[in-house]
Amino acid sequence: MLRRMAREADRKTALGSVWLREEPPPTRARLSREDIVLTAIKVLDREGLDTFSMRVMATELGTAATSALYWRIATKNDLLELVVDTVLGEALIPAEGDWREQVTAVVQAAYRALWEHPWAAQLLPTHAGLGPNYQALTERVQSILNEAGFRGTHLDSAVSAIFHYLIGSAVTDSAWLAVVRRSGLDEPRWAARSADQMGVDAEHLAAYLNRESTAGPEARFASGLRVILVGLRPRQIS
């Protein structure tokens, strides 16, 4: 019995990603995978990653035991992969204009989605890349560039540059936000108390953290993205 359970556990976690395994067959359980994922996003938005667990999820769902939850989703890591990819689905929006305008619209939508769910950015280094929405997002940018005339290695390099910038920016800005939230202070008060120790001006630090500021994270991201896209030219490198 124990050996059979161990084999079943190994099967559920084989290959290291939920996207590389088949979804469990339908059951009479009232919980669907989508129900669990949407509830997890709500919990993560409210409480963040630090206290997130499958037991917390079971409580949130009103499930007396975690067994029903584990039947649909084998591990916490599987659930985190699912929620990150769901968040990235918010970036799959229509885009018009020339190729730079289209790339800008899609990539900024991805950045905004990650800003709205900062825990997702924290997970990007370890829980993204294989899901259908991440793949669709990559293919969308690649298709726009391909239609603009990017070819071969230059196309691959352009896509990599754009996504490395997106992920790097999202992770960095999320890290700042996490520090401020752990302090229990709002951004202006945190900046006022921290600026001297950091050797920076408090007003500038507050602006750097303020999403609405022209010096804030969204404005910096948009400016940096423009720099990258202006520097790119359609061509082919073998």
TrEMBL record:
Protein name, UniProt field: TetR family transcriptional regulator
Natural source organism: Kribbella pratensis
Pfam families documented for this protein: TetR_C_1
Domain Tetracycline repressor TetR C-terminal: 95-233
InterPro entries, sorted: Homeodomain-like_sf (IPR009057), HTH-type_TetR-like_transc_reg (IPR050109), Repressor_TetR_C (IPR004111), Tet_transcr_reg_TetR-rel_C_sf (IPR036271)
Alphabetical keyword list: DNA-binding, Transcription, Transcription regulation
